[in-house]
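Course assignment 3, question 2. Fill in each field.
Student: A.L.
Task: Predict the tertiary structure for the chain below.
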Amino acid sequence: MKLKASVIAPALVFMILGFTVGCGKPEDTKITSEIQERINADSGLRTKQIAVVAANGVVTLSGTVDDITQWNAASSYASSVKGVKQVVNNVQIAESAGPIPTQAPVQVAPPGGSAAHKDSAPSTSAAAPAQRAPIPPGTPTPDVIHKKLNAFVYAAKQQPPDQQQYDEMDCYNWAKSQTSIDPMGPPTPVQQVEKGENEAKGSRLKGAGRGALGGAVVGGIAGDAGKGAAIGATVGTMRGGRQVRQGKKAAEEDYQQAQAQAKQQAAATDQQKISTFKKAFSVCVQGRGYSVQ
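Answer field:
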C-alpha cells in the first residue's frame, strides 16, 4: 500500500499542475485572436504584420509601423481586450528604426481589483507609471478640437484630466492618419468665376452698324444717303448703349450669383470634411471609454 501511494501521489500532482497550466492557454489564444482582429480592422495597421503573443494575460507586440499614431493604436487595441493584464509594446517605428525608448509595460488592472494581489509584495514595475508615447508638436489642445469639431467629450470612466487630454490629442492625430483630413488646415479655395462682358461690349458696335445701314437706306430715299447713315449710326449707337448697360447689369447679376454658388460649394466641401473627421475622432475616443456628442 505504501508503494502504491508513493506512485499515485506524484501522478496526481502532475495531473493537477498540468491542468492548471493548460487552463491559461485557451484564454491566451482568445486574447491573441481578438487583438489581431482589432488590428486587422484598422486600415492603417492591417498591412503592418504586427505579431501578437499572449502568455498568462501578458501581451507582447512586435513588428514595424509608420508613425507614432499607429504605434499608439496598436497598444490601445491590445489593452482594450478583456483578460489582458499587461501590454509590452515592442513595435518599432520606421522613422526612428527602433522601439520607443521610454516604453514601459502597460499595466491593465482586472475588473474590480488591482493588477497586484493585496497580500503580495509591491512590484517595482507595477508601481511605476506607464510611459506614454509623446504627442507630435503642433497637435491642437482639446478645447481647440472641441470648438473646431463642435464636439463635447465626457470622461465616462472618470479618467483624470491629463489622461483625457492625452487621449483626445492622440485620437486627433489618429483621425488625421485615417481620413487624410486636417481640420486646422486652410479652407477649400473658392472656384474663380469670370465675368461675361464681351457680348455686352459688342452690342454698341453692332447697334451702330445696324443704325448706319438703316439710315443710309432711308437717306438714299430722301436724297442724302450720307447724312442718313450718320443719323442712323448715332441712333443705333444710343440703342446699342442701352443694350450695353442692360448687358452689363445682367452680366454682373450672373457673376454675383455664380460667386455665391461657388462659395456655398466650398463651404459644403469643408463641412463634409469636418463631418468625416469627427466620425473618425469619435470612434477613437469612444474606444477609450469616453462619451462624445
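Instructor remarks: Residues 16-23, 109-129 have pLDDT under 50 and may be disordered. The two ends are 74 Å apart (CA to CA).
Grade: pending
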